[in-house]
Design goal:
Blueprint: H1 5-17, H2 20-29, E1 34-36, E2 41-43, H3 44-60, E3 65-68, E4 72-73, E5 79-87, H4 89-94, E6 100-107, E7 110-118, E8 123-128, E9 132-135, E10 138-139, E11 152-157, H5 159-163, H6 165-179, E12 184-186, H7 191-200, E13 205-209, H8 213-225, E14 229-233, H9 234-237, E15 239-243, H10 246-257
Helix pairs in contact: 1-3, 7-8
Length: 259
Amino acid sequence: MDCSSAELAAVASEAVQAPGEYLREAFRDGHADGSYDALDVKAVADREAQQRIRKVVEASYPEHAFDGEEAATTADSSYRWVVDPLDGTNNFAAGYPSFASAVAVCKRGEPLAAAIYEPLVDTLYVAERDGGATYNGEPLSATASLPLDHGTVALVVGLSAVTDPELAESANRLETRLRGHCKRVVTTWAPCVDWGLLARGSIEGLVGFHPDQYEYYAGSLLAAESGIETVDTVAENGRYAAAAEPATTDRLLEILQNV
C-alpha cells in the first residue's frame, strides 16, 4: 500500500524526537558507556536511542524495512527507514554539545520524508519530497548573504573514506583546497547538524565526500526541500555539493572534481 509523504513525515517527526529526553539526560550525566577505537565510538546511547525510534516506526509501519546504524531488519517492502539514532556519537562521548538524531524513509532508494532533531537545543527539521521543509514548524527557504570567499563551508567525510587510505588522502586534499576558497571549513563530526545549518542559511555551503547513508538521506532531502542548490553524484562517485547560491554550488563542485 502506498503511503503519502505527509503521513511518513509525521511518523518520522515523532520517531526522531522519541529519544530526545533520554539523550539529553544521558549527555548531562557526563559519562558515555560504550566501546572506543581510534576511528569511532559505539555508545550505549546509540542503541538505546535506536530502540526508541524503532518502536515508533514499527507502531505505524510494522511491514516496512528498518535500516538503523546500530542494527537492521529486512522486510519484503519497497519502503525502508534509514536511521542514525545518534549522529555525532564522538561529540556526545567527549561532552561536546553537537549531535542529532536523523530519520529518513525511502521508497525504492528515493527519500520521501525525513526528520532531524537536535535534543539539546530542541530543534526539529522536517522535509517532504516535493512538499518543502520546516524548521520548528516554520517553512524553510534557504538564503545566503556571504560570498564563498567570506563564508563557511561544512565538510562531511563518511567513515568509508576515513578508513580507506586512498580516499582519506583525497579527503585531506579536498579540505586543503576548500580552505583556499572560503573563510572557514568546519568538520563537526555531526553531519546532520551541518545540513540543518545549511538549510537555515547559517553557513554558505556543504561538501560531502562519500557521506554515510544514515545521515545523507535525511540531510540531502532537507537541503533540497529548503531550496538549496545541489549537485548530487554520491551514487556515481561519492561527491555532493550544496549551497543556497547556484554559483557557490558550481565552485564547490569544481573543487570536488579536481581532487
